[in-house]
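Z., the sequence and structure:
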Amino acid sequence: MWNDYRQRFPGGQVIHHYGNEEWIRAALKAPGVIVASDAMPLVAAHDRVHPRGIGTFSKVLGNYTTNGNHSATMDLVTAPAKMTVLPAKRMENFPPAFKYKGRLREGFDADLTIFDPRKIRDTATFQDPLRPSKGIQHVLVNGEFVLKGGNLLEDALPGQLIRASGGKTQQK
């Protein structure tokens, strides 16, 4: 079946399910575990991607933190740290630009997400993987709004490409 699929769809993607809730909760509780998405590059609006490419962080914040969830896995300080400062620290020795990510300090990159911990949840599905998350009011990248009042600002492109060589290149 795999060989047949690869022949018929050489550029196709395969999504498989192998985790279960117990494993996910155990991993999230472990110190040093980083939360990252399954994001794949979107080339066209009709691209099919895994819904966790869009909703990973909202799913973790909405389903596994102490925002009213009685079966919470971690608190609302630990979860964002696993998504911000832990990956930044892990990467900072490769491209040094990561030393300015994941932390709120003067002179650092102002990448911020403002959300309501009682309302945040992901809505992406396999049928509609690009559906945006709920409960996010604002997103700033390099101090510039890309989402304001829950509305995407289509012309805002403040992100910068971080290269392994350590230099930053303005994203086009």
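Residues 19-32+50-170 form one domain. The longest strand covers residues 136-141.

Let me know what you think.
H.
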